Amino acid sequence: MRFSNISNDFNSYQQLITFYEENKDEFFLNIQLDINNFFCANVSAVLGAILDKLILNANNIHFRSIDDKIKEILKKNDFLSFYGYNSEVDIHNTTIKYKKILPTDGKYFVNYIEKELIDSNLSILPRMSKGIKEGIIEAIYEVFVNAQIHSQTKYIYSCGQFFPGSNELFFTLVDTGISIKNCVNKRFKSNLTSVQAIKWALVDRNTTKEHITGGIGLALLKDFIKNNRGLMQIISNDGYYSLDDGREVYKLFAGQFPGTVVTIKFKTDDKHHYSLKNEKDINFENIF
Amino acid sequence: MEKKTITISVYNIIADKTAMDVDQGQKIFERIDKAFKESLYIDVSFQNIELITTAFLNTAFGQLYRDHKEDFIREHLKTSNLTNSGMIKLKKVVETAKLYYKDPKALEQSIKDILED
Fold first, then answer.
1. In DSSP terms, which residues pair with A239 in a beta bridge?
2. Model ipTM value
3. pLDDT at A15
4. Looking at the DSSP assignment, which residues form a beta bridge with residue B103?
5. A207 — contact with chain B (CB < 8 Å)?
6. Is A280 part of a structural domain of the chain?
7. Per-domain residue ranges for chain B?
8. Which domain holds residue A112?
């Protein structure tokens, strides 16, 4: 498969879904990949999840050609270490490592985020306010916990990339579990499409959990991204949602992604005072 | 009669400065629920907790509204050292829980609403 530009947009995800669809029923094949154009490093999480599905069918993955600059980044973020390459040190501190995490291993995920985003020398840190830093980390945790609770996935795949020039931090979490549509339809014995299911999941207080409340995390995340003027994308089966600079788009892919992807772009130079936003509306004495 | 108040330290129970997942929340819920059954007054302390998710708060506090009356919870429960963002999330969790347990079937209507959208 020869990928053209892979960034964080509908067409890039379509290329990855097409690649998965073309190979998902193959067994014992040598699957060749060529990545010679732009490849946004956070998308490693999506490609890694797809490749794991293909490896499960005893296929071999071979990177036939990779542009030198892309190879350097994908070695720095450890993605290529999963495919026979050595890791490389990231002296510029712009990569956030590619990880495969067991859903039960929340503590490991927290340590990873602390190492990559809090304690690291990532070049964003000095420029971020405390409010935005906490907001970003809590947003990432909300997405992880959602996958942990609902997806029934074997692994949660995670990767990020920081672009210092534009003050943008991209972070992607992927699961190869039952998808939002199947989760909602199973719970309510309904027949929603992928797009309808994503739309439903984004409504404040909607949850597939039984006998317990939920459904606040994604709605809060949406508000946060709107205020931050960032980007949020959800890909689940053939459904696509994006919230980009306040504008919402729903689309359908040709083919199905085998699970759910959440990509978030944060503006790291944001000066918004998040935690104080609704403070005046809260009676702190009588919260219950 | 003197109020019997106990402090539940989230940090002590989950042994972490990040209150993230439902398992951690469940531990706090069980402590509060047990103390409520003894009609104790509780201060849930978030001292040394830096980051909190809504999933944690839903599990720790949301489900209290399933088994206990609002008035009882308001009288017997308070929090301390909760960050402002944590407080905003907790308020949202509490409002959601009150609505949810008043009408658990309302979620099924939300599916119909999406289909009619």
1. A236, A252
2. 0.87
3. 97
4. none
5. yes
6. no
7. 5-116
8. 2-270
Which of A142, A190, A205 is facing B53, going by the closest CB pair? Answer: A142
Give the separation between CA A98 and CA A167, rounded to whole angstroms: 20
Q: What is the pLDDT of residue A276?
A: 44
Task: Give the DSSP letter of residue A7.
Answer: -
The amino acid at A58: A
Within a domain: A281: no
B73: closest CA of chain A, how far (Å): 7
Residue at A194 is within a domain: yes
Q: A223 in contact with B at a CB cutoff of 8 Å?
A: no
Total number of domains in chain A: 1
Phi-psi region of A215 (alpha: psi -120 to 50; beta: other; left: phi over 0): left
A192 chain-B contacts, CB cut-off 8 A? 111, 114-115
With cut-offs at 50, 70 and 90, classify the pLDDT of residue B35.
very high
**Count of C-beta atoms within a 10 Å radius of residue B40:** 15
Q: Is the pLDDT of residue A135 over 90?
A: no
Is the pLDDT at B107 greater than 90, yes or no? no
Of A199, A203, A288, the CB nearest to B94: A288
Tens of pLDDT, residue by residue over A55-83, are 999 999 999 999 999 999 999 999 999 99
Torsion of CA A124, B48, A218, A231, to 10 degrees: -10
Structure-token pair, residue A173: 């979490």
Q: Report the alpha-carbon distance of residue A139 to residue A162 in Å, rounded.
A: 16
The beta-strand segments (E) located in chain B are: 5-9, 18-19, 41-45, 51-52, 77-80
User: Which CATH number fits the domain that encloses residue A98?
Assistant: 3.30.565.10
Q: Does B19 touch chain A (CB under 8 A)?
A: no
Spatial separation of the C-alpha atoms in residues A229 and A69, rounded to whole Å: 29
* Position A218 pLDDT exceeds 80: yes
At A126 the pLDDT is: 55
Write out pLDDT tens, residues A80-114: 999 999 999 988 888 999 999 999 999 999 999 98
Q: How many CB pairs under 8 A join A and B?
A: 123
Q: Please give, rounded to a whole number of angstroms, the shortest distance from the CA of B105 to a CA of chain A.
A: 11
Of A138, A145, A199, the CB nearest to B21: A145
Q: Is residue A243 part of a domain?
A: yes
